[in-house]
Write a structure and sequence with these properties.
alpha+beta; Carbonic Anhydrase II; 2 domains; three-stranded antiparallel β-sheet; 7 helices; 20 strands; 16% helix; globular
């Protein structure tokens, strides 16, 4: 089914959703359905972000300097104490009004309520393999560990526009708790990687923050696996050098694509926000369906190495999940393929229910039916033979009829 999305307008602060797109998407001969950004009820949308034009709830010009740290780590964006804390995330809205908006991230993804969108194409990347000869800054910004990324890295497919890379960072828990930001059916994973990009149709990252299609973030769930992950080790092995807040080190380039899952065509998409203050609602999220494995030791180093400026361990740096407020969560894959298998629970290595799994079930059922039919046939044959061998039949002698007997 081919779907085209028409232009719409972004509402003012008084509109439902504070910047909800008031347009419509045409679905073949079915007529009009609410457009992807629409925050109301009704028929499900076809895709997200196709009509994302113009300023939304976030002002197009944003004051302050962008902190080099985690997604949304911002200096000078609001009054009062700008050094926000994960200890009281429910109070972020007191100094950063957008944090109280109704398009906030992260969210809990309820797989049974996601909507399949055939327009969601595989994520395509460019320039993700960084040369080992070049150095890139890795920093403890007091909220997370951040790796600055070069302008040569970009998302070239899977979104309506091209998005240029800005930085990547991680979220984690503690030695005894999981720490992903997004959850799936209320399951929280060991950690989560965010690779942050901005829309190249805007002048720079700061300008892009003011638009609902300004940022694209790739989210990857991390789990504990049996082996060391060589790509994540390129980050983890340097953490002891940046234990204190604002400490940084230059690290050689490596293949950033190795940090992502193999299946870049299986993901969820929704409109959301920065997951830290100032919480601007300018992010088109891609959360991959497949997890990435790190060894137990790697996860342990990740959650115990960094510290805040007061020397306390930097742990549990994730925001609680936020309410959907009638937003749609789209899936790039068919929702009919047993959702329990599409997104992994803790300890599983893969989330996809492949065609081979379906065929295996079908052949298994056919084999079971054939076996039952054969057993029934054997049972009937044995029953018949038993009757022929009974005492009442054993004394009867059957002889062929002769002409003499029949005369």
């Amino acid at each position: 089914m081919q779907i085209s999305v028409c232009a719409g307008r972004w509402g003012n602060a008084g509109d439902e959703g504070s910047g909800a797109l008031q347009g419509y998407a045409r679905v073949g001969a079915k007529g009009l359905i609410p457009s992807p950004g629409w925050a109301g009820t009704g028929a499900p949308p076809a895709s997200l972000g196709a009509c994302a034009e113009g300023p939304g709830a976030v002002p197009s010009s944003v004051g302050g300097e962008m902190h080099s740290g985690g997604l949304g780590a911002w200096v000078g964006a609001g009054p009062g104490d700008n050094h926000w804390s994960y200890e009281e995330p429910e109070r972020w809205g007191e100094h950063y009004p957008a944090c109280s908006g109704n398009k906030q991230s992260p969210i809990n993804i309820e797989t049974e309520k996601t909507i399949f969108s055939p327009e969601l194409q595989p994520i395509q990347l460019s320039g993700y393999s960084l040369p080992n000869s070049k150095k890139f800054k890795l920093k403890n910004n007091g909220h997370t560990v951040v790796l600055d990324l070069p302008e040569s890295m970009a998302i070239t497919g899977g979104y309506a526009q091209q998005y240029q890379a800005k930085q990547l960072h991680l979220h984690w828990g503690s030695p005894s708790t999981a720490g992903s930001e997004h959850t799936v059916n209320r399951k929280r994973f060991a950690g989560e990687l965010h690779v942050v990009h901005y829309n190249t149709k805007y002048e720079n990252f700061k300008v892009a923050l003011g638009y609902p299609d300004g940022l694209a973030v790739l989210g990857v769930f991390l789990e504990v696996g049996p082996r060391e992950n060589p790509y994540y080790e390129e980050i983890i092995k340097h953490l002891q050098k940046i234990q204190g807040e604002d400490e940084e080190v230059m690290v050689p380039g490596f293949n950033i694509a190795g940090l992502l899952p193999d299946s870049l065509h299986l993901y969820y998409r929704y409109n959301g926000s920065l997951t830290t203050p100032p919480c601007f609602q300018s992010v088109m999220w891609t959360v991959f369906n497949q997890t990435v494995m790190l060894s137990h030791d790697q996860i342990s180093v990740l959650v115990t190495s960094l510290q805040y400026d007061d020397g306390k361990p930097l742990q549990n740096n994730f925001r609680p999940t936020q309410a959907l407020h009638k937003r749609w969560v789209l899936a790039s894959f068919e929702p009919t393929l047993s959702r329990e298998r599409q997104v992994p629970t803790a300890g599983q290595t893969s989330s996809s229910f492949h065609a081979g799994d379906v065929l295996a079930v079908v052949f298994g059922v056919l084999f079971a039916i054939t076996a039952l039919a054969f057993m029934y046939y054997v049972y009937k044959q044995r029953s018949q033979n038993a009757r022929l061998d009974s005492p009442t039949k054993s004394k009867v002698i059957y002889t062929a009829a002769t002409t003499e007997n029949t005369a």
